[in-house]
Amino acid sequence: MAADSGRRIVSGMRPTGALHLGHYHGAIKNWLQLQTEAECFFFVADWHALTTHYEDPAHIGADTRAMVIDWLACGLSPSLSTIFIQSQVPEHAQLHVLLSMITPLSWLERVPTYKDQIQRLHHLDLATYGFLGYPLLQTADIVIYQATHVPVGEDQVAHVELSREVVRRFNHLYGREADLEAKAAEALGRLGRRTARLYEGLRRRYQEHGEEQAWTEIQEILEEQQHLTMLDRERLLANFEGRGRRILVEPEALVTEQSRLPGLDGQKMSKSYGNTIALREHPDSITQKVRTMPTDPARVHRSDPGEPTKCPVYALHRVYSAPSQLAWVEQGCRQAGIGCLECKKPVIEAIIAQLKPIQERIVELEAEPSFVNATLTQGAEQARDIARDTLDEVNEVLGLSHRWP
Ligand code: TRP
Ligand code: SF4
Question: Quick check: CB of 348 below 6 Å from ligand 2?
Fold first, then answer.
């Protein structure tokens, strides 16, 4: 596990098979950074694939495997992150059922992606229960780990927003723990007498005199307690404020800049548009694809000046080229000083060079199925340990723990 900054990151990706450069620049690069800064959970959302493609599930297995291999080849590491497959952590589904009890239908119907997708994917019959509930399944994916932050694209922000609303409703309904005071006192007892006295003093100042300073101080003091569990800290804070307890954590979206790398035709890079460069793309094919990319239509002849901002090749340069090379493109294009093939050459070379080590690792990983399997088994176990704690807590407040004397 990476250095704990108090942030817990959860993100998932549908199993779309081998990744392309759009995935790499839009999500994976960000995940690689996050796994060095915070505790991270990354999973293959295979149940989510079924919410739309339940009619052809045959390729989910192979697509999952290819995607995980590409993740690992890019540098996602089982020693830094918890990497797993959603369906191997059944607690996601259990929490989904429980959250479904308190989620108004209207909240799901008004999620903007709901009507959009039904229209966009009109060739699929999406008048299903699973499809309507899919943002709530996503809520369960996030909340089961008590995630604080969820890196997603712009299109997923509404789903994180739904998660926040569901969490608020849940905490409101069930956060009034009958024995909160007793449990807070127990937790306080474990902190030692000096801290307990400090806590009581500050609590009086806060509750009787409304001193904001006391609230700031107690948060700092509890933050420093190494052995305090997240739950106990929450109980102590709730008791301090004299409010209900937050059982589930409200997650925040970390929006990744939308598609920094457009596809070969300038639209969003996506398999369904046929405009991708796969991470596994052969160098010859990369060369071929970039050489045949459309450019600024104004440049019919080599002598016609062009405008880089109207050219998808320039968008690639912005990701792959240093400032001096960008300046070379801008000037060369606007003054017709360079030809388009000449302009494309350094991009082709940069992409091939970037993908070379990744492709080598893909070959290694393909030859090492036991490593991939072990990663996923271990990932699911680690994930389940955390997920079960949340579920226990949820079951408890819902009267489902069924522990009788
Ligand atoms: N719904 C996301 C997508 O289609 C994938 C996803 C599922 C996800 N569960 C998640 C993303 C939880 C972030 C957190 O891209
Ligand atoms: Fe595009 Fe480069 Fe040609 Fe300009 S010179 S149109 S940026 S490929």
Answer: no
